[in-house]
């Protein structure tokens, strides 16, 4: 391109030089002709001829220059078109590479979205594991509490045994006195017995003493058994009456909470609209609500999965509204979810107020009322937390009334005892301590604070309401069907319980009944006596307590059956 331009410039310069040369020649001739004008007509004719020839030469040079310019112009045009074609090819190649780079960026973005989803699932699993660890810690605390209760019971029984030993010693002294009196009588009647029975004095004495000792032993055993039975009945009668009366007066239903919600859709075509183009709708919905949307082959249904019941309920209501509205796109999804979230917050306040009014409680702080409402969407071991707290409040109120304590304050402590489980901030303390601190922040009574903080023995009990709330909490959680455990774990627990009982000598068969709350042990009557049966029941219960974890308590019943068979012929 630069060469052609240079050639054009050179041609133009050459043409200008030629034109200047001919023009100079022409002017020179004109001057000569002017000088020679008067010389002759022949000279004038020659000058005209020369001028004409000069003009013709100029025209020929101009035509040649025009042809050269046209050729140069054509060559320049060809070079320019070749360069433009090369630029077009380069541009197409660059565009293709840009499209490939754009595709790679889109693939990387999709992989990043998938990684974010995996990280979110991992975070959800970590939260679930943390809650399971908290549950295990609560079970361990309950087990520790049960161990302390059994230790106190063992100490009480030791004291009763010492008292029974003193009674037995007094009875023995009486028996010794009675034996001395009988010895005197034996001496007085020795001769009569010898005469009547034909026995010697020594033989009669031995027979009489043996009979009296056997009789005294039987009376002592019978008296000790009566004293022991009377002590047991006296110690547990009042507690049993209070607890049974409380349980009978309180009836509650228990709903097993799940971690999934099912949303019905009018047709399977709606699944495509929920997913959206390239999955943008479902990704937007999951990112806004924090709930996983599972779209599978289930006809006319979409599954929402998440461990947080509040977020799952918000997602369920939002998806129903989007399906009814028909407009499903990221902007609309954000609007509907935000609106439903506001409605849920209002519902939490209404539920809390309704619960407080139902339990006849006054002066509860609005923030505490909102936390009580949040209990509706929380669960503990499958038991709805709000139902559990209401039931605990009623049980504590009844027991406090039976014992002559403040029933309203007991209801208040029972309702707020699990307040730490609905605190939104993540705190590194047991939920009982967290709930106590929150209640202290809102100026609750010290007895209520102690009952909240001590219902899992995290702090010392300083109020009479604290053991009542603890007992009410245990009764509510120990109801059959109140809390749920996995079927496999449940079966393995019963099998292990039966296997532990079978390890003792003399045991023939073991049956776990009443959902694992009682085991019945059938023993061989030839190997296990009545005295050993009682000790066997204690040993089995201790082994189960040391080696297993279970809710509530397990009753061990040892059955020894003797059958005597005779045939009349």
Question: Which labels suit this protein?
Answer:
Ribosomal Protein S8, Chain: A, domain 1, 569 residues, 16 helices, mainly alpha, three-stranded mixed β-sheet, 6% strand, three-stranded antiparallel β-sheet
Describe the structure in brief.
With 569 residues, the protein is mainly alpha-helical. It has 16 helices and 8 strands.
Explain what this protein looks like in three dimensions.
Helix 11 (407-416) packs across helix 14 (465-478). The protein contains 16 helices and eight strands. Strand 7, helix 16 (530-547) and strand 8 form a beta-alpha-beta unit. The protein has five domains: 2-111; 152-239; 250-342, 2-Layer Sandwich (Ribosomal Protein S8, Chain: A, domain 1), CATH 3.30.1370.10; 359-484, Hypothetical protein af1432; 487-560, 2-Layer Sandwich (GMP Synthetase, Chain A, domain 3). The model is unreliable at 247-257 (pLDDT under 50). 72% of the residues lie in helices and 6% in strands. It is mainly alpha-helical.
